[in-house]
């Protein structure tokens, strides 16, 4: 390059040095140009008067010194390039398919299918090996907002699918995979998306920082979890904890005037943040109650008991009602199962009845506050709270327990009856029910199972209880999404537990069904307790068969031996017989027992089964 060319480049000081007045020579000598900083090379640029560095002059690059410049790592650069290449490939694929299909059509007919405004056409989406056209994406979003949104109405039904994908790809795909659970136009959509969705889910959570819209995605997937067969594979509680953490990192719990945002938060975003924080607490509390774990929700911070901080934002009435009911769930956990002085969190025996009566009075006040004219979803949510509240009666002193057990029986029957009434009315309730509704159905079933087959049965209408029980088993089959998910397995194992009661498995150990060995899972202790005894009974049957076969044949039984026979149980529909030698049958019990950390510690002999 000639000296005249160097002089020409050196004269462009006003455009290349973008930071205003000249500084002293010492500071100028320490700052490199953007290109040299990117490559981590020594730079001889002079800022005042500006003179391009020798490297930029030699390579004929634009030599600039910018204070805000940040290096881009090679991995990030290559990843961005790869994403851009993948996006271009998808666009090319869609364009090629569209042109091929249009080639076979007459021009007037093709013109009829053109969108009047290109901006209103939903983009096609790809997750892993699954491609969804814009039309399919539209149908899935319509499915979600029609069938699922009423149970947790915190998203905007008027927003486009592209809008949600722009907010967060995880949010867009969460809506799609939930809608795909029962999607009529693609029966295998849930199976096709699950693996890639899980990769997207965990990769998104592992990144920092996350926008608060990720909290919305976690709200959805915790409300309608992916089907699972075992407890370790069900990450709902873990995700709900992460959801609260991400919400706090995005300071959703702060008043607007105390936000740490550099930009001004407009009114719509303020409302969106309040609504997301409210939904986040509702979902976190429901998840904790459903699984019997400590609550991650915090209703006292910002939300408050009277929601005065939420009043300016005109939140949906359903959300406000859900908040009040969720607060009652939290009160049940803290008042009845939150005593630090007891390993199980239970109050002293002489304090249990007063604590139970106090929470019952709070429930009555809540019923009066909500009034009789409440929506279907709110009523079911409220009745589920009544089931969880009265589940505490298993721990009341025997002298005062009778009235509480009668309350539990009525609460379980009422919840089941109301769910079935709504299912008969609308026909889609069970297929699209939330996780807390499903888990409350489990609680009602196990409560009836214990009450009907105990000495307390003389005080209740057994026939009414059996009718409600059978209706609940039918409901489980309708709730089931896959043939091996929790609902389908429970629909088989609960009747098997009744068979154990009829055959006297529990009487052999001198255990009253109303006496719980498992006491560390709050309002669902009786669920875990029932399944624990189910597993013990299966093991006892297996050992008996082993001994019998060894005596008769001189060898251990094989997998080809016939299944167990199941006696007829009056008033109960027949179910598929079970094979105790099926190892997967035993192993699948860990959906509720896991590593037996919540089980009786004197039953170590059970562990080798798993």
Written overview of the protein:
With 610 residues, the protein is mainly alpha-helical. The chain has 3 domains: 3-59, no CATH class; 125-347, no CATH class; 348-610, no CATH class. The chain is 57% helix and 2% strand. It has helices at residues 3-10, 13-16, 25-30, 34-39, 54-59, 74-103, 107-112, 134-148, 161-167, 169-179, 189-206, 213-223, 236-249, 267-291, 317-337, 349-370, 376-390, 401-426, 435-452, 462-479, 486-503, 505-508, 525-553, 583-587, 590-593, and strands at residues 46-47, 50-51, 125-127, 130-132. The strands form 2 sheets. Strands 1-2 form a two-stranded antiparallel ribbon. A two-stranded antiparallel sheet has the order 3-4. It is elongated and about 100 Å long. Mean pLDDT is 79; it is low at 1-15, 17-28, 100-119 and 556-610.
For this entry, give a set of tags.
4 strands; 610 residues; disordered N terminus; 57% helix; two-stranded antiparallel ribbon; disordered C terminus; 3 domains; mainly alpha; single chain; 25 helices
How do you describe this structure in short?
It is found in: Nucleus. This protein has 610 residues and is mainly alpha-helical.
How do the strands and helices of this protein lay out in sequence?
Layout (H helix, E strand, L loop, with lengths): L2 H8 L2 H4 L8 H6 L3 H6 L6 E2 L2 E2 L2 H6 L14 H30 L3 H6 L12 E3 L2 E3 L1 H15 L12 H7 L1 H11 L9 H18 L6 H11 L12 H14 L17 H25 L25 H21 L11 H22 L5 H15 L10 H26 L8 H18 L9 H18 L6 H18 L1 H4 L16 H29 L29 H5 L2 H4 L17
Helix pairs in contact: 8-10, 9-10, 10-11, 10-12, 12-13, 12-14, 13-14, 14-15, 14-19, 15-16, 15-17, 16-17, 17-18, 17-19, 18-19, 18-20, 19-20, 19-21, 20-21, 21-23
